[in-house]
Design goal:
five-stranded mixed sheet; alpha+beta; 33% helix; disordered N terminus; phage-related protein like fold; Bacteriophage Mu GpT domain-containing protein; 23% strand
Length: 389
C-alpha cells in the first residue's frame, strides 16, 4: 500500500511539474513572449529537454510527452529542442566545400557584387635621379552572386504520438542537419562541375588538362601541380597557391591516398636515356605540397560523362590570395533554421485542441526548415582540372 501511495505522489508531482514548466504564466507571461536568453525561458527549455531525453531513452513513459504536448508552451519548447539539436548535428557534419572555397556573408537577397583590382604588383622599376616614377595600370574585375532559400516541411503526425513512435523524435534533427549539409555540398560542387565534367568556362587553357591516361598517378599529379604553379597574374608575377587540395571522386580515393602516404616515389630524372632506364628513388615530396585529399562523392553524381570516375581537381588554399570560389550565407541566418506552424483547429462547441492533435487539415504538427545560401566561382587561376581518358 505504501508503495502505491508513493507512486501516486510521484505522478501528482509530475503533473504539477508539467503544468508549472510548460503552461504556467509567471508575471502573466508564457515562453511564447520570452526571449531565448531570458533566464525563465532557459529554465523551461532545460526542463523540456530533460523530459524529451527521458522519454526517448525510455526512462519516462510516452504519455508524459503526450501530456506535455497538450499544454500551450511545450510545443514551442519542443520545436526549439529539435532546432538546437539540428544545429548541433549540422556543425558536427563534415564539410567538403569549406576546404576549397571562401566562406562569405551577404546582407540581403539582392545580387552581391564583389570588385577586384589587378595590377601594380609587378617588380618595381628603377628610377633615376630626377626621373618621373612610372605609372602602373590597374584592371578592375567583378563577380556577382545572390543567395537563395532552400528548405522543406517536416510533419509530426498525431499517429506518431498515439503509436509511441520515438524514431521520428530521435532521428529528425540528424536528418535535417544532413539535408542542410548535403544541399550545400551539391550546390558548391555544381559551381565547378556540370553534367559534362569540369565547367568549360572556368577551366580553360592550361588549367584544363585532357591529355594522359586513365586515373591518377605520380606523373599526372606532378604535371598538374607544375601547370597550377606556372600561373601568373596580370603583372607576370607567380601566383602563390599555398598547400593545394586534391579533389577526387570515390573511384580515385585509394590511388590518391596511396600517393600521399607513400614514403618513397620513383620518378624520371628528365635527362639521358629512356624514362624506364633513367629513374631515381626520391622521398615523397608530394605530401608537403598537397595539404589533403578531398574525396567528393558528388562528383560522379553531377558529372555523368564517360570520364566521371577518372577526372580530378586541384584547388589552391582558399586562405591564400584570391580563392577559386566563394559560398555565402545571409547575415544572421548562416545556419539552417527550424519553424513551427501553429495548429489551426478548434473543437465543435468551442475550445482549441491540444498541439499534439495537429492541424485541421492533416492532424499534423508541421516544422519547416529553412537554409539560405549562394555562391560563385571567383579566380580560375586558383584551380585546375585533369580529365582522365
Amino acid at each position: 500500500m505504501s508503495e502505491f501511495l508513493d507512486l501516486l505522489e510521484t505522478v501528482k508531482a509530475e503533473d504539477v511539474s508539467i503544468e508549472r514548466m510548460f503552461n504556467a504564466r509567471e508575471d502573466g507571461r508564457g515562453v511564447r513572449s520570452m526571449r531565448r536568453d531570458d533566464p525563465r525561458y532557459v529554465r523551461s527549455f532545460s526542463e523540456a529537454a530533460k523530459l524529451v531525453a527521458a522519454v526517448v531513452e525510455g526512462r519516462t513513459p510516452m504519455y508524459r510527452l503526450q501530456e506535455a504536448m497538450s499544454t500551450s508552451d511545450f510545443p514551442l519548447l519542443f520545436g526549439d529542442i529539435i532546432d538546437r539539436s539540428m544545429l548541433g548535428k549540422y556543425r558536427e557534419w563534415p564539410t567538403i566545400w569549406a576546404q576549397l572555397a571562401r566562406r562569405g556573408t551577404v546582407r540581403d537577397f539582392r545580387k552581391k557584387r564583389m570588385f577586384t583590382m589587378d595590377g601594380a604588383e609587378g617588380v618595381l622599376s628603377p628610377v633615376g635621379p630626377g626621373a618621373e616614377y612610372p605609372e602602373a595600370a590597374l584592371t578592375e574585375g567583378k563577380y556577382d552572386y545572390a543567395v537563395s532559400k532552400f528548405g522543406r516541411r517536416v510533419p509530426f503526425l498525431w499517429e506518431v504520438f498515439v503509436n509511441d513512435d520515438l524514431d521520428a523524435l530521435r532521428e529528425t534533427p540528424s536528418r535535417l542537419a544532413k539535408a542542410a549539409r548535403m544541399s550545400e555540398e551539391r550546390f558548391a560542387t555544381e559551381l565547378y562541375v556540370d553534367s559534362t565534367g569540369p565547367d568549360a568556362a572556368f577551366y580553360t587553357g592550361s588549367r584544363r588538362i585532357t591529355t594522359g591516361g586513365v586515373g591518377l598517378d605520380v606523373g599526372k599529379l606532378s604535371t598538374a601541380l607544375s601547370a597550377l604553379w606556372a600561373q601568373t597574374d596580370t603583372d607576370g608575377n607567380p601566383i602563390f597557391t599555398g598547400q593545394v587540395r586534391l579533389v577526387v571522386p570515390p573511384a580515385l580515393a585509394v590511388a590518391a591516398q596511396n600517393i600521399m602516404n607513400a614514403t618513397e616515389i620513383r620518378v624520371a630524372t628528365g635527362g639521358g636515356g629512356t624514362a624506364a632506364a633513367d629513374q631515381i628513388t626520391a622521398r615523397n615530396w608530394i605530401g608537403g605540397q598537397v595539404a589533403e585529399v578531398v574525396v567528393n562523392p558528388w562528383l560522379p553524381i553531377i558529372d555523368v560523362s564517360a570520364n566521371k570516375n577518372t577526372t580530378w581537381y586541384l584547388f589552391a588554399d582558399p586562405g591564400v590570395g584570391r580563392p577559386a570560389m566563394e559560398v555565402g550565407f545571409l547575415a544572421g541566418h548562416e545556419a539552417p533554421e527550424l519553424f513551427l506552424k501553429t495548429p489551426n483547429a478548434v473543437r465543435v462547441g468551442g475550445g482549441t485542441v491540444g498541439a499534439e492533435e495537429g492541424s485541421f487539415e492533416t492532424d499534423g504538427i508541421d516544422y519547416k526548415v529553412r537554409h539560405v545560401f549562394g555562391g560563385a566561382l571567383l579566380e580560375p587561376k586558383a584551380a585546375l582540372a585533369y580529365i582522365g581518358a
